Target: DUF1995 domain-containing protein
Amino acid sequence: MLLSSTAIHSTAPIAFLSISAPKVGDRKSFRSNGGIETTTTTKATTTMTVYRNHKYGTNNKVSKDSNASVVFDVDFPSDYSELLGQAKKATEMAMKDNKQLMEIEFPTAGLKSVPGDGEGGIEMTESMQFIREFCDRFVNGEKATRTRIFFPEANEVQFARKSVFEGASFRLDYLTKPSFFEDFGFTEKVKMADCVKPEDELFLVAYPYFNVNEMLVVEELYKEAVVNTARKMIIFNGELDRIRSGYYPPFFYPKLATLTKTLLPMMETVYYIHNFKGRNGGTLFRCYPGPWKVLRIVRDKCICLHYQEVMPSLKEVALDILPSS
Model:
């Protein structure tokens, strides 16, 4: 959804959180005529030039790292090519700072879209295309065979090998495999220790949000094959905001809820875009090592309304920061 190009002054908390509900259905049905649908060359319809809103004090120190956030200031991307370039640089800088578990999250249906704007299967297909483009930029030739990309299920690996990743040297694997009760939402976990090879250096986990068990397998992979090693892991479009926000009730999903205390605190979000709908809409944006910024488009300019060192909750942005700006 396009953000308003007019500044609207209102104190009503009507910038709504946008977290899509879990999709229900057969993964094998999400491919559209076997085609790859992507928006990698789509240009943003609004010129976005980020600048500071001085009432928030641009001289505030927001990072203690050697790469100070106030120095590393990145404009909101104008298209997906620029976005992937920013994500690549952010990931490289995070790895230089010895970050081992990283997150990249952005909408695939358009730079101004929110979760749910695109059909679930199409969003996954677009994420697959973006992952290939990101890996082509980020992983140099000789390291491709030491990069293992985990898709949620085996059938997606087969699809990737025949389409987006055809001819690529990356190692493709999967987190879960179908069970006899697949139609009821049950899958069988894959033992992660059996998938990992000694030469593996980087794991990239692709959109592990369709089934709640997928993130539990990701935690297993991290503990068994990343911790106490030199390996790195990137979670790409995992929709982790569902877990952060308590979308899954802890009473029904106790193991998933514990990830907020075990896995997520170990993670560095190196690149992030989340848009908010409503009259007080806006965008939460972060490009490592920069600060977390709340942006809004006003008269074709992307203004920074607020920034801080730690990630604010989506609820805080929607109900506090955006309405008061």
About this structure: The chain has one domain: 80-321.
